[in-house]
Each structure stands twice: as structure tokens, then as C-alpha cells.
Amino acid sequence: MACAAALDYYLAAKQSRDEDTSPLEGRIAFLTLFWGDKPLSAIDGETCREYAESRIHQAAARRELEDLRAAVYMFCKEKRLNFRPYFDLPDKPVARERWLTRQEAAELLRAALRLRRSRPKTYECLPRFILIGLYTGTRHAAILDLNWNRGPAGGWPDLDAGVLYRRGERVRETTKRRPPMRLPRRLIAHLKRWRRIDSGKGPVIHAKGGEPIGLMRKSFDAARVEAKLGEEVTPHIMRHTRATWLMQRRVPIWDAAGSLGMTVKQMETTYGHHHPDFQQAAADAY
Question: End-to-end distance of the chain based on CA atoms, in angstroms?
């Protein structure tokens, strides 16, 4: 039995649950190039290491091998195959500590506004994307899925209730949680203005003609370069920035974690040291 069969089965299972499989399809494409014709019995520590060496980024190799492992285990379970190969994955990447200062965030937003003025068709909604990211800490894909109206696929802002719903009614919750959050008052003002501009319909982040946008990486990268920020500044840094700023402002950790869709443990472990009172009692004990 070829690995391609397990990957196809896994992808079909995900699609049958109405999950967004676009990122998974991209990863499976890389996996298929290496593993597609190989039998399941070829999976072992050595071939996993060979695959990791064939990929430039070890973090990507690890994520793809995790997909392959999940696919093989599901396939073997469903087909009642008494087979459970060993997977040797690259080490987990070190957690990123980078976040934006207030000045850097302002420079990034100003750069996005300059780009929009110079090329409105290309950068129409780039400032919106950055403001939503900084004010909510919502992940890249979830921001692009937002619509002005309630629907099955993407989230929507309820401006009357002041709540952002980050996933559609038919979208299942995953480990990358998308819980509702209370909208900041300053962002509500922006959202109301943008809704008037868009006549209250369509995606919140869109191209000049109103079409949905697949990714904002190139546009965001253009703003990053314009703002003279380093390559480590990616769209995901806005989530780190939101979490860090909440801790710096002494927001209760339960509220901060709930707003971002994290567990309290994740929030405390990753961002707790940014709180002004971090270990203060211990530091001043004697």
C-alpha cells in the first residue's frame, strides 16, 4: 500500500468535515513528491530524516511529517491494518520572542497607508488587515475569512453587540482555536467606517473589486520593507504583539487568554514574563 493512498484518504476525510484544507493540500503536495510511490513499510526513522534533509526549513518538514503520521495512523486504523510505523521528526522550533513596539507598529501601519495611496488596487485592504491583527491577535487565515454578514464559512463582526465571531457557523473548532472575542472600541469605529464603504456586504478584507484575498504575505512583506523592519516580522507577529501588549497593560491573564483563544497555561508560559508584576513578590522577598 503506497503512502499516497493514506494521504488521499486523510485529505478526503478532512474535506468531508467541511474543514479548510487549503494549507493541508499544499503540505500534501510536498509530501507526495517524496513519499507518494513509497510503500507504508518504507516509513522509518531513516526515511523521515532523509525527507527532513530534502526540505529547506526544518519547521516545515516537521509540520509535514506530522501530517503524514496523522494520515498513516488514520488510514491504518480505518482499514484495520496492524501497522504503526515510527516517525522521527525534527525538533520543535524555538518559540519566537519577537513582537512589535508601539513605534514599530505605527511605522508598519504608516507604511501600509503609503502603499495604499500609491497603489490602491494592490494594497486596498492592507491597513485593515494590520489594524485587525494588532487589535485582535486573530490569525492570518481567520482574518481573511471574515465577512460583513453571518455565514457558514467565515467569521463576522457583530458591531451591535461588539463581538467578533472568528469562525463560521459550519466551521469546526480545531487546535488553532477561533473563539468569539470582545471587540476593542477603537477597532469598532474603524469597522463601522469600513462597513459603510463596503455597503455592508462581502469579505472584510478584499481586493479592489471586492473579491476575496487568498493570502496577504506579499502585501504585508511590502509594508514591512517600507517600514524598514526585519524579515522576522511576518503577519503572525501581530498575534505575538497583541499578547505581549495585553500583559504589559496588566490585563488579567484569564481575559487575555480568552481574547486570543489560548489556554491560560499557554498565555502564562509564553507571555507571562511581559507582565510588570512578573515574579515581583519573589524578587522583593528580601
Answer: 66
